[in-house]
Amino acid sequence: MSSDRVSVKDLCDGVPVDQAFRVADKQLRVNRQGSKYILLRLEDKTGIIAAMMWNVDERVFESFDRLDFVICRGRTQIHNGSLQMIVTAVERIDPSRVDLADFERFDSQKANQLFGQLSSMLKGVKDPALQAIGEAFLADSDFVQALQRAPAAVSHHHAFPGGLLQHTVDLMELVKIVAPRYPQLDGDLLLYGAFLHDLGKIKELSSSGETTYTDQGQLVGHIVIGVQMLNEKICDVSQRHPKLVEDSLKHQLEHLIVSHHGSMEYGSPRLPATLEALVLHHLDNLDAKLASYINVIDTDISVDGNWTNYNSGIGRKLWRG
Q1: What average pLDDT does this structure show over 96-112?
Q2: DSSP, residue by residue, 97-138
Q3: How many angstroms separate the Cα of 24 from the Cα of each of 39, 40, 50, 201?
Q4: What is the pLDDT of residue 101?
Q5: For the segment 127-177, what is each residue's pLDDT rounded down to a tens digit?
């Protein structure tokens, strides 16, 4: 396959396209006139573009599957402020015909570096019970591998393989800056809250192809899953070191997980009731919002150099001058 392919993030309005993509998702739909069309989401490592293929039948739809590599021919256009592609032809191709480096969104080198930071911070606390809980997580190779690859969300923030680890480390680093400024805070407890708060997303989200919710994620959610994961590790620690983890510490950690969304309206079973929970909520919200807004700016296709297009998700345009 030619090496001169244009990455998704570099596609612009009104240009012909004839190159390889990976199929993140596909749906066969019917328009108001009764004609069938395919709604596609095509990806490479830089992002995803929506695509439409009009006037098709089931044979075309069934000629390729989700996660297949395909050659798509068509043209880009802007629709409702977003770039999309009108596809005129699609053909499944063998993976050997593409450069897989164009499609692998997981950065293993960066993941290893971030995991080293995380391990160092977890081991640096003074509380032996917290240290033991951290060691139980770090000793779980399946957990470590999953954490390094997991996204933090489907679309809003850090929605890429490794995004959860990035968000977790960034939040822990914020804790290291903020906690020393307030002597009333238990910095070690807050640091572990930052580590634990979103771990349930490892099981809530599936990142094979386009990120989606797992059945467990839909039925239970990452907050409850996170409490379950914490309690499994506390049980492991207690088998080796009985009475090391007191119930009061366990309940404090659980509270940090269940209250970190800040309000019941946004999915927290409990409102933040400790200083550490209050700080965790606001720092988590800060990091998530900044990442989301930066992504809006980076992926916007507005021709106005100073402002993005109006974004309905955040209810405003953003200055990018």
Answers
A1: 88
A2: GS-GGGT----HHHHHHHHHHHHHHHHT-S-HHHHHHHHHHH
A3: 11, 8, 10, 20
A4: 86
A5: 999 999 999 999 999 999 999 999 887 766 777 888 999 999 999 999 999
CATH of domain 108-297: 1.10.3210
Which helix (H) or strand (E) is 178 found in, with range?
helix 163-178
The reply to whether CATH 3.50.50.60 applies to domain 8-102 is: no
The domain ranges of the chain are 8-102, 108-297
The answer to whether the CB of 297 falls within 8 A of the CB of 311 is no
CB-CB contact of 29 with 54 (8 Å): no
Cβ neighbours of 257 (radius 10 Å): 27
From the list 200, 168, 193, 182, the residue with the least C-alpha distance to 252 is 193
Of the candidates 199, 216, 188, the one whose C-alpha atom is nearest the C-alpha of residue 258 is: 199
| Residues ≥6 apart with Cβ < 8 Å to 265 | none
Using an 8 Å Cβ cutoff, are 55 and 35 in contact?
A: yes
Give the CA count within 13 Å in the CB-facing half-sphere of 285.
12
SS3 238: helix
How many angstroms separate the CA atoms of 309 and 303, rounded?
Answer: 9
Residue 213 β-bridge partners: 205
pTM: 0.80
Q: What is the pLDDT of residue 2?
A: 46
**pLDDT by residue (tens digit) across 69-78?**
999 999 999 8
